[in-house]
Amino acid sequence: MDDVSNILEIRGISKSFGETSVIRNLSFSVARGEFLTVLGSSGCGKTTLLRIICGLEETDAGQVILDGRDVTAAEPNLREVNTVFQSYALFPHMTVFENVAYPLRIAKTKISKAELVRRVSEALELVRMTGCERRYPSALSGGQKQRIAIARAIVGRPRVLLLDEPLGALDLNLRRQMQTELKNLQKSLGITFIYITHDQEEALNMSDRIAVMKNGQFLQIGTPAEIYDSPKTVYAARFVGEANILPCTFGKMTGDAAEVTFEGLPLTVRRGCISREYGNGESVPAALRGEQIVISDAGRFSGVVSDISFAGGVMRITFGCGGTLLTAVRYGLDTSVKTGDTIRFEIPASAAVLCENDEGGTA
Can you state the angle between helices 142-154 and 172-189, rounded to 10 degrees? Predict the structure, then answer.
């Protein structure tokens, strides 16, 4: 029986192009009204996944279940799913009003002219573009075009809205502004959003959950806090935020805490999301965020500073500790640390978390 709390179920889908496997036996579900971000580098399969969900690409195997209905073989216009692309895809010869009205005009279920005008006006108001109805796309800024593309996608009231890197063409400040607007819009509409991006900041800022994707599979699915605080793999740790990977030697596990050694010194780390068991003396990586490193004369560890960078109020201090290169993050400028200095530092108990070297698998 289908879970009525889920609007979308992906069941064991696979897709290959020739001999290249793009998606491999992928299964996951999306809750009603959820903002799920699929995060991964170029070529990981995230856009192919989106195209399968909306019906622009056929699967080799598996099912797409939308609101309890198998739509695996359904045409795109019968799926009640709309897509917002990075390129906007607005019709240049149509006004803003006609661009937004277009999905309603071609829909199988016809509505009255008054209802069409009302729904277009409502969509434009939601994206704060009221008053631009008679303008053409050539007269709009990048941010305005993106708002119109979103209005056109939501005017038909889809059950799921797919967004394929929709902010990638915008400058940094506008992109951050649109992140907030998109999240607020999603909450006000109550529509399920599936957002595709390679930008970790977007994923962390907007999502209810993040699915970290690599080589056609999900390495981990969780809330932004879970992904950031307890990355399951080395890849997830490095891809979502900046993480130092400590090569440790396993000692023993007590509950959710593990006793390991790093650079010959004892260290307590968290189990995190790993499920496998390690044996005494086995090598195991642990992820440590740069802001968790405490630079102090009383620290047990030492390193030589090789680089210092400062940008946007964040200072990064890179230093070598034995054979490991680490980066500590500080907020504000610390002029007491210079390149070539030998510094002492401490890793607080349970700051680091065990993760897996194996970067494959399905979450």
Answer: 20
Measure CA 125 to chain center: 28
Q: In 3D, which of 68, 28, 75 has the Cα closest to residue 216?
A: 28
- 308 shares a domain with 214: no
Q: Is 43 exposed, middle or buried (0-12, 13-18, 19+ CB in 10 A)?
A: middle
One domain for residues 212 and 259: no
Radius of gyration for the alpha carbons in the chain, expressed in angstroms and rounded: 24
Residue among 225, 208, 231, 220 at smallest CA distance from 361: 220
**Co-location of 308 and 224 in the same domain:** no
Q: pLDDT tens digits, residue range 276-291?
A: 889 999 999 999 999 9
Q: What is the pLDDT of residue 363?
A: 43
CATH number at residue 197: 3.40.50.300
Instruction: Return d(Cα 256, Cα 233) in angstroms, integer.
Output: 17
User: Has residue 362 been placed in a domain?
Assistant: no
pLDDT bin (cut points 50, 70, 90) of residue 4 is low
Residues 141 and 194 reside in one and the same domain = yes
63: containing domain? 6-229
**What string of DSSP letters covers 20-80?**
EEEEEEEEEEEETT-EEEEE--TTSSHHHHHHHHHTSS--SEEEEEETTEE-TTS-GGGS-
Residue with tokens 């856009």: 47
Q: 223 and 248: one domain?
A: no
